[in-house]
Amino acid sequence: MPLSDQARIAAERDRPRIVALWQALTALQSTVSFMNTGAHPDDETSAMLAALRFRDGVDISYACATRGEGGQNDIGTESGAALGALRTAEMEAACDRLDLRMYWLSTGPEDSICDFGFSKSGDETLAKWDRGRTLARFVDVIRTERPDIICPTFLDVPGQHGHHRAMTEAAHRVMDLAADPGFTGSDLPVWQVRKMYLPAWSGAGQSYDDDEPPPPATLTVPASGRDPVTGWSYARISQQSRVLHATQGMGRWVPAGAETDFPLHLARSHVAGPDQDLGAGLALTLRDLDVPGLVAVQDACYAAMAAFPNTAEVLSHACAAVQALREAVQACPAEALREVGHKLARKDEQLTRVIHLAAGVDARAALQDEVLHPGDRTNWLSEITAETGEVTATPHLPEGWSVSDETVTLSAETAISNPYPTVYLPGRAAAPRVDVDLTVHGVTTTLGVPFEVPPVVLPGRSAAVSPETDLINLDDTRRTVEIAVSGTAPSAAKPGLRVPSGWSVTEYEGRLTVTAPVDVAPGLYELALTLDGQDAKSVDLIRRDHTAPRAVARPAVAQVRVVDDRLPDVTVGYIGGGNDRVGLWLGRMGLTVTDLSSAPLTDAALSACDTLVIGIFAMKSCPDLADAMPRIHEWVRAGGTLVTLYHRPWDNWDPDRTAPYRLEIGQPSLRWRVTDENATVTVLAPDHPLLTTPNHIAAADWAGWDKERGLYFAKDWDAAYIPLVAMNDAGEAPLRGALLAADVGRGRHVHTSLILHHQMETLTPGAFRLIANLLAKRVG
Predict the structure, then answer these.
(1) What's the number of CA atoms in the CB half-sphere (13 Å) around residue 261?
(2) How far, in Å, CA of 387 to CA of 691, rounded?
(3) Helices 122-129 & 162-177, crossing angle to 10 degrees?
(4) Can you tell me the mean pLDDT for 220-231?
(5) pLDDT, mean over the chain
(6) Count of H-run helices and E-run strands, the chain
C-alpha cells in the first residue's frame, strides 16, 4: 500500500536529494572493497565504515552469522524467529544509512547457524552452528562479494562472546578456503582476499571482558573528521545507522570532540610492500586496474565529483563515465574481466545512482495492498518524473507474479515472503520492485526502486492463533483455553482444532474454547489449527515504523502446558517494562494480578497488593518507578513482598537506592551470567521457605531450561540478603548472586537474575513452581 502523505513528507525531509547525491558521488573515487564480519546484527563497526564509505569511497560490506534471534528486545515481546526477522529488517534499514552491502550466513529460522544465546566459547559455538556448514556459507559469501580486505569486529580471546570468537576464527580459515579450488563446500569461482585486519582495540565493556590485550596497531583508520557537505561527523552518521537497531536500544548522541579513530592490526597479507595505509598494495581506483579505457572513466568520475553541486554538470560527466565504462567492459579480455569484472559492475551501479539523482528522477511506486496471499490480485501505482531525460517504469516481479496494465496477479503457487533473505544490497532492490529506465545524454540506465511498503505474501491457508502458548494449573479450577483465530485466509475457511484424546472443542463467535479433562495429567499438549479440515499456518506479521514489514510463518499449533503447582494466597501487583509477559503468566497460573505498569503507585494501590513484581528493564522503562522506590520500601517494611526480576546495571538501577538494601549488579555481563542452561544448581539454603513453600523445589525443577540460566547476576550485596543457590559455567567459580532474599521489616525483598520470564514463555515447568514460591508472603 502507499505510504501516507505524512510518512512521505517525513521520508523526503529525512533524505534530501542534495545529500543523497553527494553521498552517491563519494563512491566514485575508489575501487577498494572492505568487508566487516561479525556474529550479530549491530556488531558492525559503524563509525569506521561510515568514514571508509563516505570519506574514502571504499565499497563496504558486512558478513553476519546470525539474525540475533536469541538476543534481548528493548521495544517489544518478539522473540525467537520473530525477533530474528525484526532484527534482520533493522539491519537492512541500518545498511541503507551506510550504503553497506549485507550478507548473512544463516539462511532461515531453522538454520543451525543461529543466535542460541550467550556463549563463552568459540568451539562450543562452532559445534552448535556446525563448523563445516559455517565455513561453507562464509566461503560462499566471500566468493560472492569478492572483498579485497576482511576485518572482524572482535578478537578471538577469552572473555569475549563465543559467537564473536567463532566468527573471527572462521575469518582466518575462509581467507584460505575461499581461494582454494579444492574446497568442496562451495561451487562459486575462487577468490583470494588480499588482506585481513584485526581490531587493535579491546572489545571489553558493559558485556565483555577480554582476558588478553589487543594486538599492536599497524595502522589507524582516522574516523574523527566531518563530512564536508553535511557537516556531520562520521560518528554521527554511524549513529544514524545504529539507532535503527532499536530492539537492542542502540543510538547515542556523540558530542563534538568525542569521536574516535580505529587502530587496526594487519594479521595476514597477500600483497607486497609496506602496509602504510588501508589501500596499500591494492588497486585504489579504476586507473589502477589493468583494463584499457578505465583512465578516462576515472577522470570523468572525478569531474562529476568536482562539479557538485551543479547537477547538470554532474549529470553530463557521470553519463560520459558510464558510457566509457561500458565500452571498456565490452573490449575487456575475458581473463581480466574474471578478475575485476565485479568492480566494474559495481562502478556501473554507482554511476547509475548518481545519474538518476542528478537528473532529478522522482520515482515512487506502491502496491494497493500490503498483505497478499497466493491467488490474490492487486493494483500497482506509481509517480515517476525526471527533470532531465526520458523516464519509464516497469514492475519487476518474482516467479509466480504477473502484471497486466495496472493489475498484478499472484499465482496459486506463489512463494510466501522470506523473512530471512540472505543478501541485502542498498540501491539494488530485490523483486518485487519497479525498474526505472532513464535515457539522458544518449545513455540508458536502470535503477530498481522498491515499493514504498514492501508487500508481504502470506501462506494461502493461514491464520493467526492467539495465544500460541498457554498454561493450565491443576491447583486452579480453570480447565479451559480460549483460542482466538484471526486473519483467516481464505476468509471463508472454517477453523477447527485437532486436540488430544479426551479434550473437547466448542466454537462461539470466532473463538474456539478447548476444555481439558478434569483429571488431565501434567505435561505438554498440542492443539493444531485446521482450516476446512486441512492443516494451517500461523503467521507473525511484524510491523514497526522504523523497518519494512516482515512475516514469519510456521505450523499453526498452540501448546498448552499442564502443571500441578501450589499457589501462595496472595494478591499480586505487576509492573512491566514492556519486555516480558510475566504478569500474564501469573494470571494463567491462577493468581489474582493487577497490572500497575501505567498506574500511579499510590499508597492505596500498594496496600491492595500482598506482592509486587517488577519486571525486567522496568526501572529503565517506567519513568516514575525510581522515584516511587522509597514508598515501595516502606510498603515492604510494613509486610509487603517485593520481587525484582533481572536488570542491567544501566537500567536506572542504583545499587544503593533501588533495592531496600545495597545490591550491586555485576558487569561486564560475561562475568556475571551462566550460559549453560543445564548448569548444575547447588542449593545453599535448602530450608529457606522460598525453596520449600508452597512448592518443594527439587532437581527436576532445574531440568529442561532453555537458552541459559540467567544473566546480570548480583555482584555484591548487603549482609541482609541470603544467597539461595549457586551455579557456574564449566571451568568457572560458582556465582551466588542468581537468587537473593532479604527480610525487610515485616516484609521481604527477593531479587533474581534467573531468566524466569523466558522460561515461562517456553513453558518450562520448574519456572512456574519457582516463581510461585517467590511471591509468597513472609511468615513470622
Answers:
(1) 8
(2) 74
(3) 70
(4) 96
(5) 95
(6) 17, 39
Coil, strand, or helix at residue 471?
strand
Residues forming CATH 3.40.50.880 domain(s) in the chain: 571-774
Rounded distance between C-alpha atoms, residue 527 and residue 557, angstroms = 6
Q: Does the pTM exceed 0.85?
A: yes
For 439-450, what is each residue's pLDDT tens digit?
999 999 999 999
Residue 314 has which C-alpha cell?
A: 554532474
Instruction: Please check the confidence at residue 466 and state whether its pLDDT lies above 80.
Output: yes
Phi-psi region of 731 (alpha: psi -120 to 50; beta: other; left: phi over 0): left
Sequence ranges of the chain with CATH classification 2.60.40.1080: 458-563
Q: Report the pLDDT averaged over residues 477-503.
A: 93
For the segment 286-311, the average pLDDT, to the nearest whole number, is 97
C-alpha 463/C-alpha 45 separation (Å) is 40
Query: For domain 458-563, which CATH number applies: 2.130.10.10, 2.60.40.1080, 3.30.420.10, 3.40.50.300?
Result: 2.60.40.1080
CA–CA separation, 347 vs 328, rounded Å? 12
| Rg of the chain on CA atoms, in Å | 29
481 versus 539: the higher-pLDDT residue is 481
Residues 83 and 68: beta-carbon distance below 8 Å = yes
pLDDT of 1 > 70? The answer is no
* Tens of pLDDT, residues 44-69: 999 999 999 999 999 999 999 999 99
Q: Which residues are CB-contacts of 598 (< 8 A; sequence separation ≥ 6)?
A: none
Parts of the chain belonging to CATH 3.40.50.10320: 32-282
> Domain 571-774, CATH 1.10.340.30 — does that match?
no
Best CATH choice for the domain 32-282 from the list 3.40.50.300, 3.40.50.10320, 2.40.30.130, 1.25.40.10:
3.40.50.10320
Rounded to the nearest 5 percent, the helix, strand and coil shares of the chain are 30, 25, 45
Give the residue ranges of DSSP H helices in 230-293: 234-242
pLDDT tens-digit series, residues 540-595: 889 999 999 999 999 999 999 999 999 999 999 999 988 899 999 999 999 999 99
